[in-house]
Amino acid sequence: VQLVESGGGSVQTGDSLTLSCAASGRPFGTYGLGWFRQAPTKEREFIATINWSGGTNYADSVKGRFTISRDDVKNIMYLEMNNVKPTDTAVYYCAAGPSLGGDKWETYFYWGQGTQVTVSS
Hints:
Elements: E1 2-6, E2 9-12, E3 17-24, E4 32-38, E5 45-50, E6 56-58, E7 66-71, E8 76-81, E9 90-97, E10 110-111, E11 115-120
Parallel strand pairs: 2-11
Antiparallel strand pairs: 1-3, 3-8, 4-5, 4-9, 5-6, 7-8, 9-10, 9-11
């Protein structure tokens, strides 16, 4: 499975942004999917996950502001980001892994190359 993120960019505090993760190679309907991010000098951080049946889980830092979703017909996953903050600045990665998803990046099989999100105050 090849994953390609898009939708990153430079925005201001309070803005909204939607990231997309397009999959190719094989259908990803049976995979759990996740979004992670990594800021300079920091470790990779879990953001959100959606399992094969649509169940979701979020990091406390984004709960209520970000929404993860998936379209298994189009093989695309989304991360809708609302009310963004400067602390959301990072490279955002999508990943596909076990059907239940999860918050451990080590369990994911496939990764995209990342898309930069920069939030200015």
